[in-house]
Design a protein that fits this description.
Ubiquitin-like (UB roll), alpha+beta, binds FE2/S2 (inorganic) cluster
Length: 169
């Protein structure tokens, strides 16, 4: 089947089986390796991408495990991977916030953590600690201690407010 969707802001088309997983399409057809192939069963989060459905705001802008998303599901939707997101100012806010808080990374699930942070701040610009911890529940990270991650997200949110509004608020 032919699947047309928007990938990192550009029109994309792929010929694939209806049930081929988005993770494999990204890695094999588009050579985007930021989403990692971990458990392939929705349990580790390293394959997260952001999926936007302009026709249904309730399911829009969420991080989803690309290892579970069949090709037909992305038809007409937008997909953002870390490669696309890293071109934005919003990405720099998160990098700066994580760096300020000393968030430790081995690199394995960086992209997932960054995209989860983006999806959270997009919906909830001033998240509570509980909301931050809940947002990261889907990622199995061996390196980052939860407290520094919370501080990193709070610092990223503050950095973003300063950039957007010219002051902290
Ligand atoms: S590879 Fe583990 S959730 Fe997708
Ligand atoms: S950054 Fe190392 S496993 Fe998450």
């Amino acid at each position: 089947m032919t699947v047309n969707f928007i990938l990192n802001g550009e029109d994309a088309e792929v010929q694939t089986g209806a049930n081929t997983r988005l993770l494999d399409i990204l890695r094999d057809n588009f050579k985007l390796m930021g989403a990692k192939a971990g458990c392939r069963s929705g349990n580790c989060g390293v394959c997260f991408v952001i999926v936007i459905n302009r026709e249904n705001s309730r399911e829009s802008g969420r991080v989803m495990p690309s290892c579970l998303i069949p090709a037909f599901h992305v038809r007409g939707r937008e997909v953002i991977t870390i490669e696309g997101f890293s071109q934005n100012n919003e990405y720099q806010d998160i990098i700066e916030g994580f760096s300020q808080a000393g968030v430790e990374n081995c690199g394995y699930c960086d992209s997932a953590k960054i995209l989860v942070t983006e999806a959270l701040l997009e919906q909830t610009p001033r998240p509570s600690r509980q909301e931050i911890l809940a947002a990261f529940r889907g990622i199995r990270c061996r390196c980052t201690d939860p407290e520094s991650l919370v501080e990193g997200v709070l610092a990223a949110a503050e950095t973003r407010r300063r950039r957007v509004y010219g002051r902290s608020s």
